[in-house]
Each structure stands twice: as structure tokens, then as C-alpha cells.
Write a structure and sequence with these properties.
5-stranded mixed sheet
């Protein structure tokens, strides 16, 4: 029997998320992902992990901020379920945890970005009642 647990990853254990970040960001060197992840923990960031039988199989970063148009918001970021565990309803369970965490902590909204080519994620988020509001632009310096 599988035991599923969803909880925040404590900062001293944040690097346990690195293998999933590598899976999600294949073109970014592992050492750079590690450096960035450690720096993120010094900002308004936490990471939630989805565990099956104590093995980390899914993550979502969570950014905490206030925006003029939507109030106190949580932004899930780098959401991934390991390839072996996809299409089993785990993403829905992870987001149910995020919704509860947000409401329990006084947040008014959840907003996120997803890559244009990631059509499966678009369908998932639309099924979760997220609405498309605009485009996310990036300029690398």
C-alpha cells in the first residue's frame, strides 16, 4: 500500500528537490540549479514536496507576495511530478494541498506561469479553474 504525504520541505533539506528540478530543467546545469535553489530559500520562497512511501516524487515551489490586482497571493513555481508517477492524480492532490495551505494562511489568490509549449499543464490548470490573464515576458541580461 502506498503512503502519500504532502508537506513543506524544511530549508536544511531543500536540496532533496534537486533531482526533480534537474528533470524539469534539463538544459540548466545541476550546479547552477543548486546555487539558485539555495539562494531562493533566503527570499519569500518555500517548497512543498509530495512523497510516496517517503520518496520525493513531486514538488512545487511557492512564492509569497502581495499584488495590487489580486491581493495576498501564492505563486506555485517549477511544479513537477516525476515522469514515473504522472497521470495518477498526484498533481491534483498537490494542488489541493496548496489551496488549503493558501486559505489557512490568509492568502486571497493563487497565480502561476507555465511554458507555452506545455499544453498538458495548460489543460490541467484550466481544469483547476485557473484563468489565462496575459503573457509572461522575459529578457535575459
Amino acid at each position: 500500500m502506498e503512503i502519500i504525504e504532502i508537506k513543506l520541505i524544511e530549508t536544511p533539506h531543500i536540496l532533496t528537490a534537486l533531482p526533480l528540478l534537474v528533470e524539469l530543467n534539463e538544459s540548466t546545469p545541476k550546479h547552477l540549479l543548486e546555487k539558485r535553489l539555495l539562494e531562493m530559500t533566503t527570499q519569500n520562497y518555500k517548497c512543498v514536496g509530495l512523497y510516496i512511501n517517503k520518496n520525493l516524487v513531486g514538488i512545487s515551489g511557492l512564492w509569497f507576495l502581495t499584488r495590487h490586482y489580486c491581493g495576498r497571493t501564492i505563486e506555485p513555481d517549477h511544479v513537477i511530478i516525476s515522469k514515473k508517477y504522472r497521470n495518477k492524480g498526484l498533481g491534483k492532490l498537490l494542488f489541493e494541498w496548496i489551496y488549503k495551505y493558501a486559505t489557512d494562511n490568509g492568502y486571497e489568490s493563487i497565480e502561476l506561469n507555465t511554458y507555452i509549449e506545455n499544453i498538458k499543464s495548460h489543460n490541467f490548470y484550466e481544469n483547476e479553474d485557473f484563468k489565462k490573464l496575459g503573457f509572461h515576458f522575459l529578457k535575459k541580461l
